[in-house]
Prior knowledge:
Layout: H1 10-31, H2 35-53, H3 61-78, H4 96-109, H5 111-122, H6 126-143, H7 172-184, E1 207-211, E2 216-217, E3 222-230, E4 238-245, E5 248-250, E6 256-258, H8 273-279, E7 286-290, E8 296-299, E9 314-315, H9 316-322, H10 327-344, E10 360-361, E11 373-375, E12 379-381, H11 406-420, H12 436-454, H13 463-473, H14 483-487, H15 491-513, E13 521-523, H16 532-552, H17 564-584, E14 592-597, H18 610-613, E15 616-621, H19 636-647, E16 652-657, H20 669-681, E17 689-692, H21 704-716, E18 722-726, E19 745-750, E20 770-774, H22 780-789, H23 799-824, H24 830-834, H25 839-848, E21 852-854, E22 857-859, H26 862-868, H27 872-889
Parallel strand pairs: 4-7, 14-16, 14-17, 15-16, 17-18, 18-19, 19-20, 20-22
Antiparallel strand pairs: 1-3, 1-12, 2-3, 3-4, 5-6, 7-8, 9-10, 11-13, 21-22
Helix pairs in contact: 1-2, 1-3, 1-4, 1-5, 2-6, 3-4, 3-6, 10-11, 10-15, 11-12, 11-13, 12-13, 13-15, 16-17, 17-23, 19-23, 20-21, 25-27
Amino acid sequence: MPYDRTPVFASQELRRVALAASKTLLSIAIKEKNGYASAIATQLHFVDTALQEQELYQISPGAQVLAAQALRYLLKIFQWPEDVDVEGSSLSAATPRELRESLLYLLEKSKERVTKSITRFCGEDLGTIEPFRAHFIQLYQALSIEDSQDVATITSNVQYRRPPERDIYPNEIHEVLLAGVREQSMCVQIVHKTPMLDRLANSHWHITQLCLDSGTRSTNHRIHFNIVAANSDMTYWQEMVIAISGKGERDSAGTSRLSPPNVPLDQHVKRGDFCKWLEKPCYDKIRLDLDEYLRFYEKRPTERLGHIISGSGVQLSDLLQNCDLTVEHKIKLSYAIARAFWKFYGSDILGPHWTSEDIIFIPLDEEQSPTGAVPLRPFVPLPFARQHKEQPEELDDKGRNTHAFPEILHLGIVLLEIGLGQALRLGYDSRLKTAAHPNKSHIKARMKLRDLKAMDWSGFHGKDYFTRAVENCLDSVNFKGSLKARKKPGQVVRDAIYDKIVAPLAWMAIEGFGDGEERPLVCVGKNKSLTADNMSKSREDIDFVSFQTELDKHTSFSTGDPSSKDFLEGLRVVAGYIEQRRRQVKVTKRIRVAILDTGCRTDMSFFQKPERLNRLKDWKDFSHTAAAERVDDFGHGTFMAKLLMLVAPTVDVYSVRIAKNTDELENSRECIAKAIEHAALHPDWNVDIISMSFALSETEEGHDLVAEAIEKVVKERNGSILFLASAGNSWDRGEDFPASHRDVIPIYAVDANRRHLESNPTLYGESSNKLYTHGTDIPPFVRKDIQDRFPSADLKSGTSIATAIAAGVAATTLSYVSALPKLLGSNDFEEACDKIFTKRGMEHMLHAMAPEIGYRQHFINPLRFWREKKRPMDVFMTICRIVEETKKEK
């Protein structure tokens, strides 16, 4: 089956038709003597040139939106004044591919019709034509590279051509890390029960590895590194997270200094503490702060240990020989290695170069995974201690090196090996002269590059970008700079590394596979006798074990521990597992959620991560101010969007502004009604869930407009849409509106101990069972940036918070249900699964996840539910029971 994971981009479709469309439009515009129409054709020609010169990963999401609109404008001009495609469908509902196919059909089969349409268009007044011209100018500007900039520095609106802010920090951080870990990793013999120095032979240091996913700057300007250390038997690896301040200060002499942690000096980690941790394992992550004086300070850990790892590790070269990596594995692994190479380039951490024998993966402990699963998480040894293999310097021997940058050459070889799925086993031949060894490796790599180009990655359309990244590594012309610059690499070389290697891999990893923080488990050891079905089941078992292990770190909430952070993190783990299952069966259509609130400020750092920015799909302002750009003057809507994306990071989010603040809500019923109809019925939106974290007083009149909009949508969508709303925050009355509407699922709130919040509406008489979820004690790190931006916003507790979280749970559930027929291998199950997209179906599904916590009170706990559902059939049996229950209710 073809591995068609690369999405269709509007820029690609426009590129295929732009030149022909430009020529046709220009010839008729000149004949009609219309300068504005001629300008459109000219700008379209410029756009075509820009598209020819740029790779897909160089084009920003904003430019892709403009390209899609350009296709619509062209089709409208070519059949003026009609606003439909050649098959009569609305242009706003057509995909870029459909628009391009319609344009080609007109250009090839209906030339006379096109001529008449363009002629009519040229006869319009300038006010009609000007918006078309302005749009193509805007598109060209979005695609343009500023001439004054270096080739590696592209305009800021291009997403993948510039390193993300989290990866940029002072270079001296690496030297502080290396020196600090080197000092603390030194073995203090007296601490150990058995002699260690003898076993460590010529080394005085414990075995220490750096995780290549390390080196990420947080919002508080601290750079975090993950390292693991072990004794010589490597039966237990202690994982440590080391934070170094990246916010530089200057002393009285003007020297740049790193900000020290705000911790008393008598609390710093002492020499020998590393040995104590290895001697008495704690089976938890240890969090440390490191200052410029190489002093460590132990802090309370903010995250728990994901896996227990043990053993000497599996070299990348062996992993490639004994493991079938998927296309997704290859791209994500290559991106992680290339990104780390770029970060550490020029530092002592990199060393002479990395090879597939230097990069290792540490297996899970045998008790945790008898199958021998290995997390696809790459490590390299730090350049001290016994296990670091010194490699000879590769200097230019009278200009005889065929590659001026051996480090980059060897990175290319590593990526080539990953792409091929086999190690080249180049080794080091002491009989060869200094220049001969890298030259020999270079020749062999160029020969094997042909094999990579000839490979078929199961129809994966992005393979050419991967191949080009490897090819760029093998040609030193791409990395301008002298050999002197190689020893002290300037910004030119680092920029070129990012532009030529990291950027295309980042684009493939994030756009193609939604690069998240989860790292999959792979099974080392190919068994040729396994059938495809058995291999699939084996992979499914490994994935589920990995999921359970990760989830176990965050299930304390379900057992009574009042940790809201664990609960939110657990929901994120569930979403990651479900996304992994969807990818296995190639389900790419995402669940869509509309948030009706006070707007959303997407310029905040949380939303700027590419994987989140790509999930923010559209915006509409129905409030009385009707802003054109994304705004939020109150903060409530931004907070709801952040909560939703935290617990359901893979769904598409649509923001609708219905009021400037909560005070305006009571006078915004017409705005709310319009927002509901737009979100549910507009062909470009057509959302699956509408989340309403607000409540209108049930005693107020005038709910008819909103109620009619809800009922209209439910009728036109044949019941296949979900509304969730806050039950209200007034204890002295019943459910507020719209939660009280029969087609809406009302959401109540509990605290971290699963106790009914006093602010919830009162449950009168024989009311039905109510659904609750977390509505208070949101961790400070979730609220802080929004509270800082909106000091007056009340973000502490209430059913608004619970509704956003419940909407995320519902969206994640639908994500799995939409893939369930393919997971079960039959479309016969679709009819039953479709019931979960209705109000009654989802309500029953949430109740299936919700144990009783009080009289008619049920707490939605997806963590326990998904931990118990090992097989797709287990989930389907729950759905079958729900279908039967809904039939009984009729």
